[in-house]
Amino acid sequence: MRYRTLGGTGIDVSTYCLGTMMFGAVGNPDHEDSVRIIHAALDQGINFVDTADMYSAGESEEIVGKALRDSRRRESTVLATKVYFPMGGEGPNKGGLSRRWITLAVENSLRRLGTDWIDLYQVHRPDPRTDIEETLGVLGDLVTQGKIRAFGCSTFPAEEIVEAHAVADRRGLRRFRSEQPPYSLLARGVEASVLPVAQRYGMGVLTWSPLASGFLTGRYRKDAPIDLTSGRPALHPHRFDPSLPVNAAKLDVVEELVALAEEIGCSLPELAIAFVTAHPAVTSVIIGPRTMEQLEGLLKGAPVVLTDEVLDRIDAIVPPGTNIYPPDGVWRPRALTEPALRRRPLEERAAG
User: Which runs of consecutive H residues, i.e. helices, occur in the chain?
Assistant: First the structure.
């Protein structure tokens, strides 16, 4: 396993980060089996574990806490979690990035994780309702209090990363030390601005969805039937229905990538993860196994390094900065999703 420094924190992390979204009710509900998988990853040299409060409504954090109950494992593990999405039932003020919510959410995460500190606390998405100064202020306070060691952002567009750094500089606040964007062979959009901005500010980058929701596992192939009634396709049929043009485009590209992987003597998942780790901005790539078999398969690719010739051939298949599909519909600014922001009030238009 290789290790890289996470931004300017001085913290060294493995190039593979164990993502735990699939531990709990939405993936592997067996706590003991999930703990075994976490221990196996740590024993193989992974020292970076990423979770979030909203994964299985807190259950993932509880499983991670059980796995790190031994103080030696906890001390040797860089632990990351996230805050933003609603937790705790209906009603207002149960999510977001306000001082009020973050102050409550971090205590709940610490309790579920069974630890006194979080190494990397990440804001899971931008919050247009909250001034970024408010968010940076409370996160800085948590560092001072010793409850977190550093903080970062996740799935922020480049312009909001720049704004956050500008506010931090102007107000003398601590700044985001990392960004967590989606990045894969099928979703290279972050290469255009997010990754260069992260490099410019010396941020660490831990990427999610390197296997593009399973399309880069080789499980889904062109002209092969996809069962839309079970597993992940049943939960998100619009992402897998081969009759939709965007999914047909994914399958076309997968065929070319499968051929390339076979030619250079590796599997498609190994090619996919090696591609992400090859970018100089990337610190660590999040892998999210649900079973021990999946973990072992992913770890086999850790030694794979792609030559410039192979990377050039990948560029010919999927041009740099190109998204074959929009990864989970992220980076949809409010100006595009809320019609009222694009239209003057009727009375004003009538007066004009």
Answer: 31-43, 59-67, 71-76, 99-113, 132-145, 158-171, 194-200, 231-235, 245-264, 268-278, 292-299, 308-317, 334-337, 346-351
Choosing from 16, 55, 84, 220, which is the catalytic residue? Answer: 55
The CA distance from 35 to 42, in Å, is: 11
- All structural domains of the chain with their residue ranges: 3-351
pTM: 0.92
Q: How confident is the model at residue 90 (pLDDT cuts 50, 70, 90)?
A: confident
Q: Which two tokens stand for residue 93?
A: 């003020």
Sign of the four-CA dihedral 21, 326, 196, 157: negative
pLDDT greater than 60 at residue 352: no
Q: How many helices (H) and strands (E) does the chain have?
A: 14, 10
Nearest to 122 by CA among 178, 69, 74: 178
Per the annotation, the verdict on 84 as an active-site residue is: no
Q: At 242, list the tokens.
A: 């081969």
CB 5 within 8 Å of CB 12: yes
Q: How far apart are CA 201 and CA 153, in angstroms?
A: 13
Across the range 38-61, mean pLDDT stands at 97
Taking the mean position of all CA atoms in its chain, how far away is CA 171? Answer: 28
204 forms bridges with which residues in the sheet? Answer: 178
Q: Containing H/E element for 154?
A: strand 148-154
CATH fold of 3-351, please?
TIM Barrel (3.20.20)
